[in-house]
Design goal:
Two copies of one chain form a homodimer. By secondary structure, chain A is α/β, with parallel strands linked by helices. Chain A folds into three domains: 49 residues, 434 Repressor (Amino-terminal Domain) (Orthogonal Bundle), CATH 1.10.260; 140 residues, 3-Layer(aba) Sandwich (Rossmann fold); 130 residues, Rossmann fold, CATH 3.40.50.2300. The first copy, chain A, is built from twelve helices and twelve strands. In chain A, the strands form two sheets. Chain A has a six-stranded parallel sheet with strand order 2-1-3-4-5-11, with helices on both faces. A six-stranded mixed sheet of chain A has the order 7-6-8-9-10-12. In chain A, helix 7 links the parallel strand 3 and strand 4. In chain A, helix 10 crosses helix 11. Chain A starts with 6 loop residues before the first helix and ends in a 9-residue tail after the last strand. At the A-B interface, helix 4, helix 5, strand 2, helix 6 and helix 11 of A face helix 4, helix 5, strand 2, helix 6 and helix 11 of B. Chain A binds a DNA duplex through helix 2 and helix 4.
Chain lengths: 348, 348
DNA sequence: TTGTAGGCGTTATCAA
DNA sequence: TTGATAACGCCTACAA
């Protein structure tokens, strides 16, 4: 049972009080030059590091941000997280990450709620939530209630969440612009039979995208065939399965917009395997502009959601808030933009 | 400045002492049924959660594991992390993740060393390190020194690290079996001109894999042409560039083993774009068996490193150690295995 | 079964 | 500029 090296160990050996060592450590008050050197020496001798737990308790601040998301493993989420971590670190904060993917997306909100409690117990200074139940159209009432009380307990930033009337910051991808560009582009390529695959109907981003597509098509006087909305999840496998369904139809679309790049990659995979040439016989477009789009041939045309921008806006907004530089703007939109690659061409 | 709700708030209102509330919370001692109910009621009324920071300080234990890796965004690492998080959570631990990717892989070890200090300050109970400098053949001496002292400060588990003589647990992929299978397979397909691309020469996994390939080929009486080892990093782009170099050679290999799946996907991308048919004209194999291999056409033959097994072995070993159920086995090998898909065929 | 008191490692206040 | 001392919120002997 060897004793911990604490600020007292250092103080004693340096012949000063703990308070002085503390001042040396925080740099918040002057310390005599000679004592300063002595303290520094002892600290090095013991390889002493201040105990962050004690420090946090004393300061009532942890310089830690909770980050809840479905799954870092998905390229889009991963990119957002990595950038968030980078920016946070730069600003002296660290991130406590929780993946809720194991939670059932459509029903059980227990995991996510437990995570929230779990994170709060750790006394994070702020909480960032991306994706997940937060944008489920039929969010369980008790969950909504929980989120609501949450906003009184801790500063909250939501990334692409959709719950209205919540007292928190919302960083949102402005899908409108990107989708309009995409639809205009497809129409300019003479596509009129356009499908939309992937995503759950119950979840806002899915519905929202579909809606905007429909409106956008409408502006060109083109209708959307409901049969060509194939609901599934957000995975590569979903893309594979959905594309297969489309290809088995007697009346096929000529272009497919996918709810994200993973689905797009899956769709491309199936089309290619079934001998349907992309883009000659079938155009495919994705969402997110993750690195996946550049892994496959043809490379996939997609809508860039600027994950890094999303991330650093979220972190900076949070930290500004925490450090008292309040922003009055609670709603921040991040532009999206069409990225042209090789997976779309003239409708056959 | 509203007051925090503490164990005292609860105690007072429930008409008991803080100690009793604490007992209720930890369940480590009996408390009278009626008081028990009263306490429970007050806790619910205030939505009270014990402060983990204070608890950690008091217990001298954080139930938190530090996890250092290069980049969660890479599918292999991401999978390992996610599984680690899952298992840890199940066992009552949480994970503090640090990505060192921003650190320059070949030179600067400062970031990684800073991360270590940073994590130690947070008083994690154990540290898990995967990839990174840890296996650089020419690790800076001061870094080695740091790692060495580290093993005296905190339990350490390394995943696929390669520093010898360190007093820590090593969870290592037994590449041998998988690679032998792969080489045997390629040779059985009549390949004799086999290339190896991606990875840094200075890093153990790269060198190790190359070595095993050479030995394995040797057993078949086949030599390895050094010109066909193309050094680069571990990215998709590396695969693209390396394949292009190979294809520009007058004397081309007929099969390419890639240091990981990302490189393999990149290699496939370039081959396809340059009109070289895979696998008919060029066989490609990867490493890791990440989901990427099933995103592309043809799907990629690869060596499965069992990332989940790696992860839960690491976590379980660590927690067993922490909770006193010492294991004497410090070196644990995880089997690897060839996974056949569609990217290899008979040498033309 | 319960309460009191001291400790976990820092920081901050107040005198000196 | 420095040193005592009292928080910070919880846990755990020890005593009752």
């Amino acid at each position: 049972m060897k004793k911990n090296i604490t600020i007292y160990t250092i103080a004693e050996e340096a012949g000063v009080s703990a308070a002085t060592v503390s001042r040396f450590l925080t740099g918040k008050a002057k310390v005599n030059e000679s004592k300063r050197r002595k303290i520094d020496e002892i600290i090095k001798k013991y390889n002493y590091r201040p105990n962050a737990v004690a420090r946090n308790l004393s300061n009532q601040v942890t310089k830690t941000l909770g980050f809840i998301m479905p799954d870092v493993t998905a390229p889009f989420y991963g990119t957002v997280f990595l950038e968030a971590e980078r920016v946070a670190l730069e600003m002296g904060y660290s991130i406590l990450l929780c993946n809720t993917m194991n939670d059932n997306v459509l029903t059980n909100t227990n995991v996510e709620m437990n995570y929230i409690d779990f994170i709060l117990e750790k006394q994070v200074d702020g909480l960032i939530i991306m994706g997940g139940h937060i944008d489920n159209l039929r969010t369980a009432p008790e969950y909504l209630e929980r989120i609501n009380t949450l906003t009184n307990q801790i500063p909250l930033v939501m990334i692409n969440g959709e719950i209205r009337g919540l007292d928190c910051y919302n960083i949102t991808s402005d899908s409108q612009a990107g989708i309009n560009q995409l639809v205009d582009y497809l129409v300019s390529l003479n596509h009129e039979k356009i499908a939309f695959i992937g995503g759950y109907m119950d979840i806002q981003p899915t519905m929202r995208r579909l809606q905007i597509i429909q409106e956008s098509l409408g502006r060109h006087g083109i209708g959307f065939n409901d049969k060509w909305f194939i609901e599934d999840d957000f995975s590569v496998q979903a893309g594979k399965d959905s594309m297969e369904k489309l290809l088995r139809m007697s009346d096929r679309p000529t272009a497919v917009i996918c709810v994200n790049d993973m689905v797009a990659v899956g769709a491309l995979h199936t089309a290619t395997k079934m001998g349907v040439k992309v883009p000659e016989e079938m155009s495919i477009a994705g969402f997110d502009n993750t690195y996946l789009t550049e892994c496959v041939v043809p490379e996939i045309t997609t809508v860039d959601l600027q994950p890094k921008k999303l991330a650093n806006t979220a972190i900076e907004t949070m930290i500004k808030h925490l450090e008292g530089n309040m922003t009055d703007k609670k709603e921040i939109m991040i532009k999206t933009q069409l990225v042209l690659r090789d997976s779309c061409s003239m409708a056959g």
